[in-house]
Structure formats: C-alpha cells, structure tokens
Records
---
Amino acid sequence: MIVIENKTLYKCEHCRKKYEVKSACEKHERICSKNPAYLKPCHSCTNCKKVKTYVPSGYSDFYGNESEREVDILFCDKISTYVHSPKVAAKGNAFVPGDFSNVVFPDTCEFYTSNGTAELLAKQNY
Ligand SMILES: [Zn+2]
C-alpha cells in the first residue's frame, strides 16, 4: 500500500466530493446539483414532464436499417420542446429525437408553474 501525505485536494463547496485536479473540481461545481445556482425553473416546474420517445440506436438491424430505441426524455408542454438539464449538456449526451428540438433548461421561464419542490427544498434549508 502506498500512503500519500500532504497532497492538495479540491473539495466541492456544495457537496462532499473531492478532486485531485482543480479544473475537474471547478467543472463539477458548475453542474453540482447541490449548487443553488445550478437549479433552473424546469427542475421544479409542472410543465416539465418525463415522456418516452425514440432516438436512433446507433446500430443497424439485420437488413441494414438503422434501428431506434425507446428513451425517457423531458418535454415542456408550454414551449413544445424537449428539455435537458445543464448536467446533461455538460456531459454532451442529450438525446436528439427527430420530432422536436432538445434544448438546455433556460435560466428563466415565463410559463413556470411551481410543483412545490423548490419551496420544499427552501423550507428544509437544502
Ligand atoms: Zn458538488
């Protein structure tokens, strides 16, 4: 076993994650779900609903046709668009369905209707 002493570690200000690389910690803090600045209206909005859609699977079937797979995705009824969190955007793995576009959660939204989650978190001093 190798014991490493006096090594600089970087800790997220919002959760308990530790990093050896400063840039990795900074990158995490931007998308840390415990970061108050990370929370967007869509996180606690009744218009944001989980639906099922189909995206290209990246594989071809026996006949050479590209197959599709069913995925869960968030859809906003008010703006008729798929939406995804900043975390998904940072990882670059948002789905690209054919029927509607898929955009990252906006910072503000005129159609925001609280589902009570934000108030509950505030009450718990989360
Ligand atoms: Zn964190």
---
Amino acid sequence: MKKKKKKKPKITTLKNKLWKIFSLYIRIRDCIRTTDNPERGYCISCGKLYPIKKLQAGHFMAGRHNSNLFYERGCHAQCVKCNVFLAGNILDYIDSIIKLYGKKIINELRKNETKRLKFTVKYLEDKIKLYTRKTKKLLDDYKERVK
Ligand SMILES: [Zn+2]
C-alpha cells in the first residue's frame, strides 16, 4: 500500500479556512452595506453592481504575511476585473475607503503593512470563530429587518 501523502501543516489548513469565512463575511457585509441585500453589491473600486458570487474580497494592500491579510477595513467586496485584471484598481479603491473611514485609513493600513503577524493556531482558530459568528449575525439581522 502506498504511503499516505504527508499532511499539510495545520496552520495552512486553518489559514485557508479562515480566508474562506473572512472573505464571505467581507462580501456579505459590503453587499448589505451597499444594497441592503446579501445577494448583490457594488464593487469598491468601479462601483458596478454584481451578484455576490461574482464578487471577491479584495485587499487594498495585498500583503500575504502581515496584519492586513485579515483586517476588515483593508478588505472589501470587489469585482474580478478590478481585483485581478486591474491589480486592485487602487486609485478608485482609495477614494472609496477614504469616503468610508476618513483619510486616516491610509496610514492605518500602511502601518499594518509593516507589522509581520505570526499566524498561530490559536490566532487562526479564534478568528474563524469570530467571523463565523459575525457572518451569522449579519444574516440574522438582515432576516430580522426584511421579515
Ligand atoms: Zn470593479
């Protein structure tokens, strides 16, 4: 019998799991914020309307190992064209987040960019719990409103 493939390190698995739930949270949050409907929303950069399935969670700063990766104020629902083909469509992205949070957001994200975050099992598990809860709350509140 063939030996089983070596298991991926737990951190990677947890990080992927967290990304899945974090990304869903971001997209639902922004759909509800922009259209009051969890099934569609506007792209943070080009401002076009998309169904949630066509939206991605796009970072303003795309660091993979720093504090911006799972930072809510640096990640927003974005269409594939802006996120992937226009590399974030950053100029329009800036306008939108300044409107949302004020100018201080730029320094806030810049500071995060320099902070290396060590993703421990505990950190990732806590965040998975947090965003599972927050996503459920968004949807529960929505259902309550449209009842
Ligand atoms: Zn777009």
